[in-house]
Amino acid sequence: xxxxxxxxxxxxxxxxxxxxxxxxxxxxxxxxxxxxxxxxxxxxxxxxxxxxxxxxxxxxxxxxxxxxxxxxxxxxxxxxxxxxxxxxxxxxxxxxxxxxxxxxxxxxxxxxxxxxxxxxxxxxxxxxxxxxxxxxxxxxxxxxxxxxxxxxxxxxxxxxxxxxxxxxxxxxxxxxxxxxxxxxxxxxxxxxxxxxxxxxxxxxxxxxxxxxxxxxxxxxxxxxxxxxxxxxxxxxxxxxxxxxxxxxxxxxxxxxxxxxxxxxxxxxxxxxxxxxxxxxxxxxxxxxxxxxxxxxxxxxxxxxxxxxxxxxxxxxxxxxxxxxxxxxxxxxxxxxxxxxxxxxxxxxxxxxxxxxxxxxxxxxxxxxxxxxxxxxxxxxxxxxxxxxxxxxxxxxxxxxxxxxxxxxxxxxxxxxxxxxxxxxxxxxxxxxxxxxxxxxxxxxxxxxxxxxxxxxxxxxxxxxxxxxxxxxxxxxxxxxxxxxxxxxxxxxxxxxxxxxxxxxxxxxxxxxxxxxxxxxxxxxxxxxxxxxxxxxxxxxxxxxxxxxxxxxxxxxxxxxxxxxxxxxxxxxxxxxxxxxxxxxxx
Length: 586
What we know:
Blueprint: H1 3-22, H2 48-58, H3 64-71, H4 75-84, H5 91-95, E1 98-99, E2 102-103, H6 111-128, H7 132-142, H8 159-172, H9 177-185, H10 188-193, H11 213-220, H12 249-258, E3 262-263, E4 286-287, E5 297-299, E6 302-304, H13 310-323, H14 327-339, H15 346-358, E7 361-362, E8 368-369, H16 377-386, H17 388-391, E9 403-404, H18 407-417, H19 429-432, H20 464-467, H21 480-494, H22 514-517, H23 523-534, H24 541-552, H25 561-577, H26 580-583, E10 584-585
Antiparallel strand pairs: 1-2, 3-4, 5-6, 7-8, 9-10
């Protein structure tokens, strides 16, 4: 019996009780006892394949123990447990590398080494963090609310600002999207990256006008997009049968006035270098009223009166953006893409957008997730992961469903599945910046632009997905170079030969193949094990046969069996992780 029926039954029982007590005749006969509560709904035990598939969508990759634990639980209980876990954060790890504001490194640290600390913290949290769902959602957000610190960028020398931004996304992953927009806006990392740090109001005497970068991107990329949307994410069409633009250049110019007057806290507005206290680099920005535009600001449907103070102007502007009907489908679609489906159907987008708008989601057991405010992230995440389009077995055989796995997710899945001895990336040459297509082709917080490594609306030309009109964002970074680069990169890690610097640094990212080596004399059993662990039991018989055939080229001789077994495992793991069944997450 559902929650609604139980409530109605309770009211009915209460009504009958009152009727018995108030009827004529004054009978002293006690009323009958209320009926017993209905039994709980039957627990449908998950299969290993279902558990593996769900964890592939909601974590940085399942381990065998994770799959087994979920088989003995259920999706809703797992999600609610993840919501309760404390976050694995990044800033303190970076701050621990400084003494009195000076970077300390026994090897004689360089700027390149300095900037590796946020990246190293990412790999550690993604691979060993217990709060896997939070970390996966934070990574998804990092590809929507993009901040990047590639070599030569303005953020290269400020690892604490980058780590603080990573913490904003990590804590905000289970918060509210409106609150997240506020924290992002006051972030020194975002202000530096999108150039509104020290953004001053217009001064007529020198021709200065406010920087428009953030005003443009917060509309185009973070909230409402370029065209008006229906609740299912499809474009609204005007009388000319063309999409309707959400904003124009005047809206950008007016909104830019809102983001004036922000600079580092506890310093003067134009402070640079040593003039900025170390803690101000990662603290929220401060509003300097004298540099904030006091002019009226008109954009979209908002009018911010003249002489409104800076912080209030920002609050009103973010509220206006958040109230826009585009936000729910625009953000929901991209979160779906980063977690479950590269080309979600309009119906899927519409269902999740409705939850985003309502701020509340009913779990399968009848419990409610979310506080009822538009933009509740917990409710939205639950809606994405538990939607039929993500969970139904029918989608396993639907060529239009599924998601291209991002390179980072592929690598972390390997590291977690095979219990690497350490996720310390500080000495890992390839992980300093893995964005080159000759390596992974993607690196955390190092995208080439604010548009991320790939666009959410990308349709690959000359491809089968393109012919069907399917968006496949991740295909934008797939090329002949990246295919070979990924294979070579992965091979070195699979065999434990990835380069490090200095050479005497402790070994890290070394896999533990104990369970796999124990199966190496039975190729069929080993492939079945890897199928469960890496592909959610989606591997085709033909793929399995090819892997078994490759393993058979290394016959066990009795003399070097240990090495041959390890080689068999390495070949099998590499072939699975370069097979279509692994590269496409179903």
